[in-house]
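Researcher: I'd like a candidate sequence for this fold, 540 residues long. If you have to choose between options at a position, lean toward the conservative one.
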C-alpha cells in the first residue's frame, strides 16, 4: 500500500491523490445553524471515520508484519547443509557419468532428480519442456594454409585462425582458389572456391553460411576487420539457427581468422590466384534434451516471476559451482516455499535450464516457444549462475548496463533490492556487467523486453588487489580456479558465501513475489500515472 500511495498506482488508496482528496473535502460540510441533531450526526460520523482509520492502520501494520515475518522465514530456512546435500547428489551423478553432467552425460539424471524432489514436495504444475539441440566435439587437428606467390603460409590454430563451433568437417585436407566476397547473398559467391568474407559484414552468420553452401562454396573464412575491438583474435562463434521447433547447422567448413591473416589474403589476392588448403575435424551430434519447469499454484498470472538457473555442466567436469550452486539454490528455495504454504501475490516459475553451456539453449527455447502475447505476462527473470566461487566476489548484475532501454529501469530496481540486502548485512559487493552471458540473456533481448537481475560470485575473472581488500581471498588468482574443469566438485564451494548468496536470492524473491503491484514497483516512471481519478462531485 505504501508504494502504491507513493507512486499513485492503481490499487493504492485513492485518497492519496490530492485532486480526489480536495473533491472529497468539498463534498462534506457542517451547517452550524442546523442545531444539535446535525452536530451529533457529525460527531458520530467523525468517530466512525476515526475507528475505520484505526482498523485500516492496524490491518496494514499487521500485513506488513506478516510479510516481514514471511520474508525472514523464507531466507532463514535456506541452510548450507541442505544446499550441500543437493550438491552432493549432483556430484554423485557426475561420478557415475564420466565426471560430467553435460547433456550427453549426466544431465538427464540431474534433471530427473530435481523433478522428483519437486514432485515429492507437492508441486503439481510441473513439466519437462523438450527441445532439439546439438553438440560439437573436436576429433583431430585443424589446419589452415595459403600458397601465395609460390610461398606457403601455415597459420596457427588459436592465434591466427579458429574453427567456428558447429562447423562442418572436411574429411581430410581440401584445397580451393580464394574468392574475396563483399556481399551476403547466394549470388555473391562462386562455386568450388574458398570464400573470404568480413566477419562483421552480414547480420546473420547462419544465413551467410547457408548462402555460401547453396552457392557451392567448399569452405568459408570469416575475417576480423581493422575497426573491430578484437581484431587480433580469430572469432570462434557458434553458427546455428535455433527455433521453437528445430535446430539447424550448416554442413560447410567454417573458419575465422584474425585481422592480420585476412588482410594478408586480401592484399595478395589481386596479384594472382591464392590457393587455400584446410582441414577441419569437428563432429556435430544432435540430441533431444529438456528444461524442468515448476510453477507455484498461487499468484497472479499477469506478473509471473521466472527464477532460472542452468542445471547442466560442461563435458569436462561435474559443474558443482557452475552451475550446481545456482540451480540447487533455486531448488531449495522452491522446496522451502511450498513447505511453508506461502501463497505469493505473483506466480513464480522455477526453471532449471538445459544446455546453457552450448549457448543458452534451454532458456532461449523457453522464451522463443512462448507466444509474443505471453511476454507481457512475465514481470521479470531472476538468474543465479555460479554463486559459490572459492575466491569469490559478491556480484550483482548491473541493470544500468542493459542495452535495451525497455528493460533498464526495472533491471535497476531489481539490482537495488540486492544492494539493499547486502548493505543491511554490511557485506561488500560489486556490480558486474549485464552482458547477457548467462540465461537472462534471451529475456532482455529487444522484442522480448523482460527485465532481469541476479547474482554471481565469479568465473574466470582475476581478483585484483582492490578486490582482495574488500572480499579477502587471493589477489592475482581467478575467482573460480576450477571453472569448466574436472575439479569443480563440492570441495570447490565456498560454503559461507554460498549460503549468503542463496539467502539473498530468497529474500529478494520473497519481496518481489509478495508485491501487490509488481510491474508498477519495477517501473515507477512508466506506471506513475496509471490510476483512476474519482469523480466525487460529478464535474470532472
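Model: Candidate sequence:
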Amino acid at each position: 500500500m505504501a508504494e502504491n500511495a507513493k507512486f499513485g498506482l492503481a490499487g493504492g488508496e485513492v485518497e492519496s491523490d490530492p485532486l480526489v482528496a480536495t473533491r472529497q473535502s468539498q463534498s462534506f460540510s457542517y451547517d452550524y445553524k442546523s442545531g444539535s441533531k446535525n452536530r451529533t450526526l457529525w460527531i458520530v460520523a467523525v468517530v466512525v471515520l476515526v475507528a475505520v482509520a484505526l482498523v485500516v492502520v492496524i490491518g496494514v501494520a499487521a500485513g506488513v508484519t506478516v510479510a516481514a515475518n514471511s520474508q525472514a522465514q523464507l531466507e532463514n530456512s535456506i541452510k548450507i547443509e541442505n544446499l550441500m546435500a543437493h550438491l552432493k547428489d549432483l556430484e554423485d551423478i557426475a561420478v557415475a557419468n564420466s565426471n560430467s553432467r553435460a547433456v550427453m552425460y549426466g544431465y538427464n539424471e540431474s534433471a530427473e532428480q530435481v523433478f522428483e524432489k519437486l514432485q515429492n514436495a507437492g508441486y503439481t504444475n510441473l513439466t519437462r519442456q523438450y527441445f532439439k539441440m546439438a553438440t560439437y566435439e573436436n576429433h583431430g587437428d585443424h589446419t589452415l594454409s595459403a600458397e601465395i606467390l609460390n610461398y606457403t603460409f601455415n597459420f596457427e590454430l588459436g592465434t591466427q585462425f579458429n574453427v567456428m563451433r558447429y562447423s562442418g568437417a572436411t574429411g581430410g585436407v581440401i584445397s580451393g582458389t580464394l574468392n574475396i566476397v563483399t556481399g551476403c547473398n547466394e549470388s555473391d559467391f562462386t562455386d568450388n572456391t574458398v570464400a573470404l568474407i568480413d566477419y562483421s559484414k552480414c547480420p546473420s552468420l547462419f544465413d551467410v553460411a547457408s548462402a555460401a553452401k547453396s552457392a557451392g562454396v567448399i569452405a568459408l573464412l570469416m575475417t576480423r576487420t581493422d575497426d573491430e575491438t578484437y581484431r587480433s583474435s580469430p572469432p570462434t562463434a557458434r553458427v546455428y539457427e535455433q527455433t521453437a521447433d528445430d535446430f539447424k547447422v550448416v554442413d560447410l567448413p567454417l573458419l575465422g581468422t584474425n585481422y592480420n591473416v585476412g588482410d594478408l589474403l586480401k592484399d595478395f589476392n589481386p596479384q594472382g590466384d591464392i590457393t587455400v588448403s584446410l582441414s577441419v575435424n569437428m563432429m556435430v551430434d544432435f540430441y533431444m534434451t529438456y528444461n524442468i519447469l515448476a510453477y507455484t499454484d498461487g499468484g497472479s498470472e499477469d506478473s509471473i516471476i521466472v527464477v532460472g538457473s542452468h542445471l547442466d555442466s560442461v563435458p569436462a567436469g561435474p559443474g558443482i559451482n557452475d552451475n550446481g550452486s545456482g540451480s540447487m539454490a533455486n531448488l531449495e528455495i522452491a522446496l522451502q516455499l511450498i513447505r511453508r504454504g506461502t501463497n505469493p501475490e505473483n506466480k513464480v516459475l522455477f526453471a532449471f535450464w538445459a544446455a546453457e553451456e552450448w549457448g543458452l539453449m534451454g532458456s532461449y527455447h523457453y522464451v522463443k516457444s512462448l507466444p509474443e502475447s505471453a511476454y507481457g505476462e512475465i514481470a521479470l527473470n531472476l538468474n543465479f549462475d555460479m554463486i559459490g566461487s572459492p575466491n569469490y566476489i559478491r556480484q550483482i548484475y548491473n541493470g544500468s548496463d542493459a542495452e535495451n532501454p525497455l528493460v533498464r529501469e526495472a533491471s535497476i530496481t531489481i539490482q537495488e533490492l540486492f544492494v539493499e540486502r547486502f548493505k543491511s548485512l554490511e557485506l561488500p559487493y560489486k556490480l558486474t556487467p549485464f552482458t547477457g552471458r548467462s540465461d537472462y540473456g534471451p529475456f532482455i533481448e529487444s522484442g522480448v523486453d523482460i527485465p532481469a537481475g541476479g547474482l554471481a560470485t565469479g568465473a574466470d575473472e582475476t581478483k585484483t588487489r582492490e578486490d582482495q581488500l574488500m572480499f579477502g581471498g587471493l589477489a592475482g588468482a581467478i575467482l573460480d580456479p576450477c571453472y569448466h574443469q574436472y575439479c569443480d566438485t563440492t570441495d570447490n564451494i565456498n560454503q559461507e558465501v554460498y549460503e549468503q548468496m542463496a539467502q539473498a536470492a530468497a529474500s529478494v524473491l520473497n519481496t518481489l513475489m509478495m508485491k501487490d503491484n509488481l510491474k508498477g514497483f519495477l517501473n515507477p516512471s512508466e506506471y506513475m500515472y496509471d490510476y483512476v481519478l474519482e469523480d466525487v462531485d460529478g464535474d470532472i
